[in-house]
Amino acid sequence: MTISLTRRLLLAAAPLLLAVSTPAAAQEWPFTSGDFWDVGMIDVKDGGDFQYAQHLATKWKDSQEFAKSKGWIKDYMILYNYNPREGEPDIYLISVMDRLPTGPDSDARAKQFEAWSKASAKMLSEESGNRAQYRTLMGSMLLQQAKIK
Questions:
Q1: Are residues 47 and 133 in contact, defined by beta-carbon separation less than 8 angstroms?
Q2: Residue 149: helix, strand or coil by DSSP?
Q3: pTM value surpassing 0.90
Q4: Given CA atoms 3, 6, 7, 13 in this order, what sign does their dihedral have?
Q5: Which CATH number describes the domain made up of 31-148?
Q6: Phi/psi class of residue 71: alpha, beta or left (left: φ > 0; alpha: ψ in -120 to 50)?
Q7: What pLDDT digit, counting tens, does each position of 58-117 carry?
Q8: If we measure between CA atoms, which residue out of 38, 26, 103, 104 comes closest to residue 67?
Q9: What does the domain layout of the chain look like in residue ranges?
Q10: Has residue 52 got a pLDDT over 90?
Q11: What is the DSSP string of 69-134?
């Protein structure tokens, strides 16, 4: 039994036809961009737990609530690392926002924050430095959520 030339051409072209007929949706990126998560990584020094917890429950919370009231952030949270390995932070401080501010927006926000907190940039920097007695800022990450379509 011989296969006709037409059938041989159709069989040879079948994989190409399947590739061309793949729906466009299957070729699109499967994620959409979501919120940004600003993550501060904190190492709390021995004996500094209570003092730092007090700071987080008062000044840090108040500043986060101010930022939330201005629409700068959508949410915030504190995550404890219960089993930190060597070199890992004890605490993650997270602020969630739907977009990043531009340079001029950042400057305007800083001025509004200074007015609200009744503290200059110098004073705020010194306060942060004073917390070095009981905590170390190990670094930060800026993450973006990937939502599955």
A1: no
A2: coil
A3: no
A4: positive
A5: 3.30.70.100
A6: left
A7: 999 999 999 999 999 999 999 999 999 999 999 999 999 999 999 999 999 999 999 999
A8: 38
A9: 31-148
A10: yes
A11: HTTS-SEEEEEE-SSPPTT--SEEEEEEESSPPPHHHHHHHHHHHHHHHT--HHHHHHHHHHGGGT
